[in-house]
Design a protein that fits this description.
Elements (H helix, E strand, L loop, with lengths): L1 H42 L4 E4 L12 E8 L4 H15 L12 E7 L2 H7 E3 L6 E3 L1 H11 L4 E6 L6 E2 L8 E6 L6 H15 L24 H8 L2 H4 L6 E4 L2 E6 L17 H13 L4
Helix pairs in contact: 2-5
This protein binds zinc ion (ZN).
Zinc ion (ZN) binds next to helix 5.
Length: 285
Amino acid sequence: MRLWHGRFTLGQGIENTTVNILKGIIWTKRLFLLSVFIYFAFSCFAYDIELYSEQVSWQFEQLFNLVFCSLNYRNKEDLSRDMKVLIQRLSKTKPFNEVVERIRVYYINLSREEENTILKRTQGFPPLKVRQDFLDGISAYLKSNYKLIIIDASGFSSCAELSSIDKTSLIILGRRRYKNEHSFARGFLHELGHSLGLRDECVNCQELCPAGPPNCAPTKEEAKRWWGKLVGSVPRVHYIRGCCGDKDYIRPTIASLMNDPDKAEDFGPVNERYLKNILEGLSKK
Ligand SMILES: [Zn+2]
């Protein structure tokens, strides 16, 4: 009896232990699957993304997200030096300097292998293609739209989608195109302007874009409506001939970052008013 009992106890013990181990395995598996689910559901981004800005204020529901991503950089130091140049220039440029607490900056560290699979160089325009799941992953991580700025250390061409503040869009900066840091920073501001809806104000532009608000009017009548009271009350704002590659269109100032960035310090009053309105409008949404 005792033995049997003992056997029974022993047998039950083994059975219980086995059941417990099996239960443990099942629960470990469940917990693992749950953590995988939580990881993908709530972070949704498999790459190394880090917050760069420190001055950001979390009191605003909507922020202007800039996400930097490097390509072909030899080391992290070169990238952080370049990013510092761009961020410092941005935070000193009107009207971004007035809304720095609404600008959130991130950067993504990609390994060389990741760069090769996510960013593909093309022969056409734009010069790079970005994998859609990478873009979607950033959206899911930020839970917001953003501007993705790819700095290509070995690239020569820069461009940006003509877009708006409420849309995710892409900016490509070919680092080798710029002869120095000033030129690089101004080139970035020019492309950022496009991504927020500003048109080219040059006459001899290579890439023609259609005339449109706020800074390239097809006629003087439209320019009068768009510039409004700024003409006459603010220095530099007039009806200047030529923008978007057409000498008959009208632009607001002789020089601007949206014209030749190397020959301008700022966006000019019409563009600054437009940018301030859209950046401040973020918090009202
Ligand atoms: Zn341009």
